[in-house]
Amino acid sequence: MNAELIEFRNRVVSSKSSSGKRMILNINQLVVEDQVYLENWPITNKLDHAKKPFIKKNETEISLCKRITVDDSDPVGNLYKREELIVSTPFNQPTPLIYKGLINDWKVGKGAWRVESGVLHGDELPDDKHASSCTFRLEATDLIIQAQFKLGTAKLVSFGCRDNVPPNLHLARTFVSPDSIWIQTMSGIAKTTKSQKLVTHKALIDPNSWHHILIEILGGHYRVTLGNHIVEARHERFKDAKGIIALITKGTGAQFKNISIWRAKENL
To answer: Of the four, 39, 115, 119, 166, which is 20 to 30 A from 90 by CA?
Structure first.
C-alpha cells in the first residue's frame, strides 16, 4: 500500500493513500523498517514545515513519505471506520507486581499484573476466586478495540465491555481459549451477573504465539477478527453506551501489548 505520511503522534500514524483516502494506523501495523523510521522521525526530520515540504528529493529521506507497508497479520478492518483515538497503550513503563491501582493508565481490579519489556502480564490469584481484570474508563458507544495477546499457560483471555451507568453493569465480552472464540452478551454485576453465549467459533489458537485481535462494535453489531477467523453476533444490548473496557484472564501466563481503543462510525 502506497501512502503519504501526514502526522505521527502517540504511536498513531495519519496518512493519505494514493487515491486520497485518509488512513489512521497504529505503529505496530507497519513493517519493522517503517516502525524504526517513525520512531526516529522527530529526531531526523528537522525541517521547518512552514518553509519546506516534508518530502525531500534525495533517496534517504523519502522511504515512509512515499510508502507505508501494513503487516497483513494485523487485521485493519473495513467494517467500521476509526473516528477518534481514545487511548493507545504500548505498555512501555515497567512496573512491579500490582494488585490494586493504576498500571500504565489502566486500573488493576483483580489478580496480579505487571509490565515488563513492553508487555502487560496478568495472572489470576486463587484467593480472589475470580478471574483477573484490568480496566480502562471511557465514554463511548461505538468502538473499535485493537490489541495483541498471548495465551501462554492461561485457560483463556477475554475483552469485556461494561456500560456507563454506575455501578457499570456488564454488557458484552469476547473470549479466546486455545480451541475457541466466542461472543456473549451480559447483564448485572458481581453475583447478579447473567450471561448468554451468542456464537462460538472453533479455532486452534497457538498459546505460545502473539495474536492480533480486532473487535468492532457499532449499534447492535459485534464483530471479532482474529487472524483468518471472523466471528459476529447481534444483540440490542450492544447498542448501549460503554463506560469500561476490561482485559480479563483465567489462569496464569497471559500477556497483552499494543492496545488501542477508538470511537467508530460506519465505513461508508
So the answer is: 166
